[in-house]
Amino acid sequence: MENKIIFEKQDLKYLSWDKLRKSSGTAGSFLKSYSELSGIKTYYKLSNYDTINGVIGYECINEIIVDRLLTLLGVEHLSYQLINAEIVIDEKTIVTYLCASENFRTKYEDKQALDVYYQNEKLESETPLQFCARLGFEEYIYTMLVIDFLILNRDRHGANIEILRDKKKKTLRLAPLFDHGLSLLFNCYSDKDIENFDVLADLPVQCFVGSRSAKDNLNLIPKNKMPKLNPIRESDKEFILQGLDEIVPTKMLEKIWEMIWKRWCYYEDFCNT
Q1: Is 228 left (phi over 0), alpha (psi -120 to 50) or beta?
Q2: What is the pTM of this model?
Q3: pLDDT in tens, 24-55
Q4: E strands, the chain, in order
Q5: Which of 24, 29, 81, 158 has the fewest CB atoms within 10 Å, measured from its CB?
Q6: pLDDT of residue 1
Q7: Could you tell me which of 239, 229, 179 has the C-alpha nearest to residue 208?
Q8: Which of the four CATH numbers 3.40.50.2300, 3.40.50.740, 1.10.3720.10, 1.10.1070.20 does domain 109-272 have?
Q9: The CATH number of 5-102 is which of 2.60.40, 3.30.200, 3.90.1150, 3.50.50?
């Protein structure tokens, strides 16, 4: 998916948006769909959808921003594409931007939510973090905790981390990082919301392997095992926000960059303390 943003309107009215997910703490719904052409399965998802007001969220925008951020940091992740599309929901035609991603599983891999796999395979009194360390997933989990701090991901529940098992090769791995929509300023809908948002705030988060505090979760990482990430520089702002000024208010984009930059500086200070 080299072309990250498709501005020209695409006719995707054939998609069926019958996969509904409710997320605690957020109003509205998140609709999902998929298509399969020439053996390639593509998954689609919308930002927060309200039956009265239509698509009202920024979750799909966040996926592209985090995709670019993780590329700069050198972190394996699911790649997303942002598409200007005409779709049909409840017999209403809507024009909106949606996210598309391809299947990250290989031919013989099955997926299972980490929380389910943990419940079936854990040792007595073993925490999710200890469980992941025993399976050799420490580096992945520590990197994830850092990323989720940088973007203030509020939704890293146990199904947003997936175990992939290859039945033929008898291998086990964690899926590339995915699903970062409920992060950054996803719940800011007005200029006042944006202005009042504290970019360094430690808001309550869902984190299956950690705590309700993204900042406290950094303390779960041993100092000698801090992830080796490529540094973020102020000049990276252009790459991360490129093309989005045609879709998102400038005030929102400026605040998002301020959030990423200040939280990165906080993280660098944390590593050097």
Answers
A1: beta
A2: 0.93
A3: 444 457 899 999 888 888 999 999 988 888 88
A4: 5-11, 19-21, 30-37, 40-45, 49-50, 54-55, 81-89, 92-102, 109-113, 155-156, 162-166, 171-174, 206-207
A5: 24
A6: 46
A7: 179
A8: 1.10.1070.20
A9: 3.30.200
Tokens of 176: 């590339």
Compute CA 226 distance to the chain's CA centroid, rounded to the nearest angstrom: 21
Distance CA 180, CA 148 (A): 8
CA distance 156 to 207: 5
Phi-psi region of 243 (alpha: psi -120 to 50; beta: other; left: phi over 0): left
Look up tokens 């997933």; give the residue.
137
Measure the CA–CA gap between 6 and 9, rounded to whole angstroms: 8
At 251, give phi and psi (nearest 5°).
-60, -40
Name the 3-class secondary structure at 121. Answer: helix
pLDDT in tens, 229-256: 999 999 999 999 999 999 999 999 999 9
**118/141 Cα distance (integer angstroms):** 14
91: left (phi over 0), alpha (psi -120 to 50) or beta: left
Euclidean distance between CA atoms 229 and 118, whole angstroms = 28
Considering Cα of 97, then 98, then 99, then 102, what sign does the dihedral take?
A: negative
The domain locations on the chain are 5-102, 109-272
The model's confidence at residue 144, banded by pLDDT at 50, 70 and 90, is very high
At a CB cut-off of 8 Å and minimum separation 6, what does 33 contact?
15, 16, 17, 18, 19, 43, 44, 45
